[in-house]
Recover the amino acids of this structure.
């Protein structure tokens, strides 16, 4: 069963067991390339600095992914979202299960009002995920890419990038969901399947299994 809970420091070491991406555009999420425990401790501390919070996506006690919040603003009750899944478990419905649970935590338990995110245009899997759970597309723009360490390879092998004043940029999309949006989706029991066909579910059934999707 997939469930979401607060990410603990000891969970960070479990990222060592993650797989690796075949696509260089996602190499920044290849945690298996790091071996020292100290590296994971520093990563955990950075992810939990002021105005940030981290949640673990778990199956039993194994960490299948994590959800991050940054730019948490207690006055506007808003934040920015990020999600990452173990490459060994992509395209299995885990992201949708976890995000559906997390939205209830975010808007109901944490009593937040707005959640936004930015995703690279080339990341079609993530775009489909965000759309399927009800995020609204807002706009697109050229943005600084989060991985600035592999500029030469990314420019050489992919058409998604361009250099602007020594920095790597790519086209990105902004999405948003408000608490009002979430409550409306919940009241209508709306979700979409893997083909983005709309269907209804029991709104109280957050601890679903992968087979349910």
């Amino acid at each position: 069963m997939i469930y979401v809970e607060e990410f603990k420091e000891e969970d960070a070491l479990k990222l060592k067991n993650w797989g690796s991406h075949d696509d260089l555009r996602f190499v920044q999420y290849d945690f298996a390339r790091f071996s020292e425990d100290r590296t994971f401790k520093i990563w955990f501390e950075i992810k939990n600095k002021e105005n940030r919070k981290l949640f673990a996506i778990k199956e039993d006690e194994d960490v299948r992914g994590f959800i991050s919040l940054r730019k948490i603003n207690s006055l506007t009750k808003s934040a920015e979202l990020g999600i990452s899944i173990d490459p060994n478990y992509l395209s299995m419905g885990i992201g949708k299960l976890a995000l559906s649970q997390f939205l209830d935590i975010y808007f109901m338990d944490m009593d937040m009002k707005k959640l936004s995110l930015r995703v690279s245009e080339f990341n079609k899997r993530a775009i489909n995920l965000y759309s399927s759970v009800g995020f609204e597309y807002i706009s697109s723009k050229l943005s600084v890419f989060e991985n600035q360490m592999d500029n030469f390879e990314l420019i050489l092998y992919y058409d998604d990038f361009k250099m602007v004043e020594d920095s790597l940029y790519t086209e990105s999309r902004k999405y948003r969901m408000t608490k009002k949006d979430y409550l409306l989706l919940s009241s209508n029991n709306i979700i979409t399947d893997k083909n983005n066909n709309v269907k209804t579910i029991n709104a109280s059934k957050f601890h679903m299994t992968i087979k349910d999707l």
